[in-house]
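Working notes for the structural subgroup meeting. M.R. asked for a predicted model of this chain before we commit to crystallization trials. I am recording the input and output together here so anyone reviewing the notebook later can reproduce the run.

Input as submitted:
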Amino acid sequence: MKVKESGLRNGLRVLLVGLGVGWLILLNSCVNIDPVPSGAVSGEISRNLPIRDSSSPRSLDSPGDNALAASPEYFRKPSPRPGYATSWGPSLPSRMTYSSFRRSNDTPHGGISSVFYNDKGGVDEMIGRDYYTSTGRKRAANGLVEWGMRSGFGILRSYHSKGKRYVVGRRNAKYSISVKNNSRSRLEVVVSVDGLDVVDGKPASLRKRGYILSPEQTIEIRGWRSSEEEVASFMFSPVVGSYTHLKHGETRNIGVVGLAVFTERGIDPWSGRAADGHHRFSASPFAESPLRRAR
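Returned structure, recorded in token form:
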């Protein structure tokens, strides 16, 4: 009997020890036993976790997720470029006709003129402290034309600094490019906005043809030409909504309007007469060679 009782007691002990070990294993599988770093509160544990692989999906809406800011995808996304560009606005009626014109030279008369535009903060940054302002259209091409950007009730005020000209735009406001011919002859003007030609909406070039201005004529270029009857109005807009960005995926030349003026071949732009007038005034009525002395 003593042998049987001792065997029974040993069996009970083994059973109790087995039950205890199994119970501990069950508790460990249900409780998170990750240690909390010394001096840290539970709300900061996620900030100390290792960053997962960039290929694993993450929620962009998780507040306080610093792991996203350190991921490669975050740095590949460019931030929106600040300032203004020009968008493809609503259609406006503008009928186009054709006329022949032969340029006197392949080089623009007086060089290329430019007006830079931006929002108020952008213009303040570009002009710095050394600048002066002016109103109305400004002369270009050695005085052959006057031009400016019109928006609202008149020509936008110009800010001049270090030989450049700037204007301040207003978001979603329409504008036009006003050009006046001061000469007595026809002129051809080639105009670009954000590096795009206003006639075809493609990258601008001096080889492309422009608008013909009669003597003393003023034109308002109100948009990119979409047909012979209409133009898409110019509108100040954020860079991401600009025509050059949406259509061509390019933002390098945003914020600038260019003007090139060409004179007509054989015509003096200031008098409107044939360019060889000074040769005609010097013509001699007796062109016979002097007589030779006879020997």
